[in-house]
Amino acid sequence: MTYTTTFTPGVIPNPYTGNAPGSAIAATTALFNQLNTDDKLALLWFAYTEIGKGITPAAPGAARLQLAEGLLEQIKAMSHSDQLRVMRELAEKVNTPICRSYGVLSINTKLAFWYQLAEYMQQGFVVPVPVGYKASTRASRVLGDVISLDYGQQITFLRNAVVNMGVDPLA
Questions:
Q1: Residue 77, domain member (yes or no)
Q2: Number of domains present in the structure of the chain
C-alpha cells in the first residue's frame, strides 16, 4: 500500500488543530495570502487587537523575543512613514537587511514580533492603522473567519500569516 502526504506551501501543519488542506485554518490562510499588503497588515493589527490578549502567554513564553529586540528597537526609532515602509517590505518579502534579519527568526519569535509591533502601535511608538481605516470586504471576511476559529486555530493561523514574511537569507 502506498501512502502520500499533501503539503500546502505557506501553511504550517499542526496535528493539534486539524491544519490539513481544506481545513478552516488552511482556507483562512489561503484567503489571507490573497489580500493586498495593506489589508494583510490591517488584518494582523485587528487580529492582534481582537485576540492578542490570548497570544501574550503563548508567544513570548515559547519565543526568544530578545532575538528580535534589536529589530523592534530599529523600527521603533524610525519615522512613522519608514515604519510603515518596513512593515510593507516584510509582508512583500523585499530583500532588505531588516527583512533578512526577520527571516531567520523562529516561528514563535515571528509571532511575538508582530504581537510586540501591535503593542507598540497601541502605545503610539509605531505607526497605527489610520483612524477611520476601512478594510476591504475581503479583509473583513478573513478577519471574521479568524475570529470564528477556536483559540488554538487562531494562533496557528497567525503563525501561518507571519512565518513566510521577510526573507530567509539561508534559503
A1: yes
A2: 1
Position 7 in a domain: no
Intervals of the chain under pLDDT 50: 1-19, 21, 56-60
- With respect to residue 8, please indicate whether it lies within any of the assigned structural domains: no
SS3 assignment for 60-115: HHHCCHHHCHHHHHHHHHCCHHHHHHHHHHHHHCCCCHHHHHHHCCCHHHHHHHHH
Residue 4 falls within a domain, yes or no?
A: no
Specify burial of residue 47 (Cβ count, 10 A radius: 0-12, 13-18, 19+): buried
Cβ atoms of residues 14 and 156 within 8 Å: yes
pTM: 0.81
Check which CATH number belongs to the domain holding 95 and give it. Answer: 1.10.2090.10
Per-residue pLDDT reduced to its tens digit, 133-154: 888 999 999 999 998 998 889 8
